[in-house]
């Protein structure tokens, strides 16, 4: 029986020394300090890229709302339901942005983790926030997870941006079906095919009540951050 293991070892996968090259860095403080800045710059770049994607979504949402408002109020004959379509599309943008925000928070949390456990202690060595920070960061690199829940991300984007956009659209709809259509009853201006205007108003009111409830929903903070006087959340939601 022919033994082919020598050929396999020679031409096959990397040997153990090559596979464990990262472990040699862990045992050498100078090598580790040489690697960390590159890692940090990479995470900052990822966070900036994710932030740009969020900003683009927000810009499109604002542009859409401005376009719909301009169209609806350009003539008395323009129907009010165009604003309802605008609200629906804004909701789609919101859910896209929630997912993008969760990715952004993922990268941002890593950046802050390195800042508070490495750079802050380098400037003033009073101890680290997480004694096992290297193990925690290593685990997150091997098993990356979102640091913020969908509910919290949705609540934060509503409070920061979309609550105001929805409010502007809602006020615009109210003015359109009342003051800008004096020749009709508001219920006639608000009606949709098969739906009475009063029912449309009730549905819209329930929608805004849901938006307000989500935006103000109480709960423990999971997103990483210490700005605006808010207590910082956990580094990672296990």
Characterization of the model:
By secondary structure, the chain is an all-alpha fold. It contains nine helices and no strands. The chain is elongated and about 80 Å long.
Q: Write down the secondary-structure element order.
A: HHHHHHHHH
- Return Rg in Å: 27 Å
- The helix-and-strand class reads mainly alpha
The major sheet is characterized as: none
Count of the domains? 1
| Overall shape | elongated
Low-pLDDT ranges: 4-8
| Distance separating the two termini | 52 Å
Give average pLDDT, whole number: 84
What's the total count of β strands?
0
Number of helices: 9
Helix content: 55-70%
Query: What fraction of the residues are assigned to beta strands by DSSP?
Result: under 5%
Brief characterization of the structure:
The protein is mostly helical and 238 residues long.
Question: Secondary structure elements and their pairing?
Answer:
Blueprint: H1 5-11, H2 16-19, H3 21-26, H4 29-72, H5 81-123, H6 133-142, H7 150-177, H8 186-190, H9 197-215
Helix pairs in contact: 4-5, 4-7, 5-7, 7-9
